[in-house]
Amino acid sequence: MRRASLADIGLPVELIEPHAPVVLFDKVCLAFDDKVILRNVTFDVRAGHTKIFLGASGAGKSTILKLMLGLLKPDSGTIWVLGHRVDEMNEVELMGVRHHMGMVFQEGALFDSFSVGENVGYKLYEETRQPLQEVRERVEEVLGFVGLGEHIDKMPSDLSGGQRRRVAIARAMAAKPTLLLYDEPTTGLDPMTSLTVDAEIIKLRDIESVTSVLVTHQLRDAFYIATHQARRDGGDIQIAQADSTKIAEADFVMIRDGEVSFEGSADELRSSPDPYLQAFLS
Amino acid sequence: MSGAGIVSKAVEGLKSGLLEVQEYVRLCLAALRGAVSRPFYAHDLVEQLEVIGLGSLTVVLLTGFFTGAVLALQSGMTLDQFGARPFVGRLISASMIKELGPVLTALMLAGRVGSGIAAELGSMVVTDQVSALRALGTDPVRKLVVPRVLAGFIMCPILTVVANGVGLLGGWIIAVSQLRVASSVYWQSVVDGLFLEDVWMGILKPFFLGFIIVSIGCHVGLRTRGGTQGVGRATTSAVVAASVTVLVVDFFVTRLLISILF
Questions:
Q1: CB distance A139 to A120 below 8 Å
Q2: Three-state SS for A33?
Q3: Is the dihedral of CA B52, B53, B55, B57 positive or negative?
Q4: Is B244's Cβ below 8 Å from some Cβ in A?
């Protein structure tokens, strides 16, 4: 449930510790001019868990992801990500933290002038000294993981909306991040394509042990991700109903008018008597 | 609108103008830091040298050639009044190399390169590609701004020399075919009209102008807001701001170089 302050949690974060908090927000506030975006937002995300932010459009959900990445700075409050206090870091220092993070942007934000393979391998080609052959192999591996291996040489404009989202997921996971942030990964996609994207998110979380933070207002996708898990079945990966331990590792946070109005499990969300939540879920 | 409203609007306008200047200076300083420290994206520089240099060659060749040709036509008529037609080469070389070559090349680059950069970077901003670059651990200034600014800084003087060359050639064709000036007289006059200081001025000015055009394009592009409409506005702003700044900077740099060289 919601925490009053970071004192309950203890710092610094040891990344190797199972279920250690990898993200901590403590009383974070942000406003653009007179418009309050976030007000006293406090939560934590534990290693290997899934945090799903729900809320109406403009509620401040995507802003939370941008604050985690250090793309925005809060007006007050503290933000810890992977053991680093990102609200106090400069751009150069943030590059080191971002190296362990991946983000899937709304609409994908793929680089138009690069092929699918170049998009996916961008970080490895540009920001590491990894040999080109190794990078190529990793790109083929992650594109295979999202089922787009045959599209490696295509341009993003040649792909469908769903394929572009999956390429964006492949790009975010290529450098083996510890923490993956998804900003509305299924918005604007048809239900079948959304399920494919959901499956990729579940596979990454359960097979690659990536901590996931998801922002969405697609309830069906949010509950699907929270209540399913991926298992290896021989050479194949199967998506099935999650067991109770896995379900307990997925938390929902409702953002309303810039504030956390609910934090809890899928069952707690469904059974909440709050009229706003009931209206949101109906 | 009341007097207080006008004053308030003027103050807001002034603040916003000062903020733009502050952000522009910050971007220029970050680009300068990026040009002399790692990481440096050399392959992007090569790509931009091709886009800015080779890509602008046709427009610069046409501009330079026809400017030299029309200058010969116009000055030939004027010089005829004093019986000084053989001096047409002197007038063309002095005008092209000291002023028209650098300024017209810079204006062409402002239209072609400045607008292109603002549109490209603006589109990247509104589609979150710049945020994606940052999220992937890349500094957008080093990746997008430094290669473009360096390419503009290097290619503007080279393109100016090309424009000057074809301008003299255009003038020569008109001098020989229309004004009936002997070829040897024209070229001797071209050389006589030039001093080493003029050549220095013609070569040094484009370094400043190239930097200005590209840095303004990058600044306007990276500050784009408001979707595709914003990209359109950014493109127009980049061309207008770069063109006006080219003329203003040309005046001050000319003034400075005159005081240093002459």
A1: yes
A2: coil
A3: positive
A4: no
Boundaries of every domain in chain B: 42-261
What does the DSSP 8-state code read for residue A109?
Answer: -
Please list the pLDDT of chain B residue by residue as tens digits (262 residues).
678 888 888 998 999 899 999 999 999 999 999 999 888 999 999 999 999 999 999 999 999 999 999 999 999 888 888 888 889 999 999 999 999 999 999 999 999 999 999 999 999 999 999 999 999 989 999 999 999 999 999 999 999 999 999 999 999 999 999 999 999 999 999 998 888 888 999 999 999 999 999 999 999 999 999 888 999 999 999 999 999 999 999 999 999 999 988 7
Residues in chain B within 8 Å Cβ distance of A167: none
Interface test with B, best of A82, A95, A139, A169 (most B CBs within 10 A): A95
Q: Which of B136, B222, B228 to mutate to test the interface with A (most CBs of A within 10 A)?
A: B136
| Prediction pTM value | 0.86
Hey, what domains does chain A have and what are their CATH numbers?
6-14+22-100+177-281 (3.40.50.300)
ipTM: 0.83
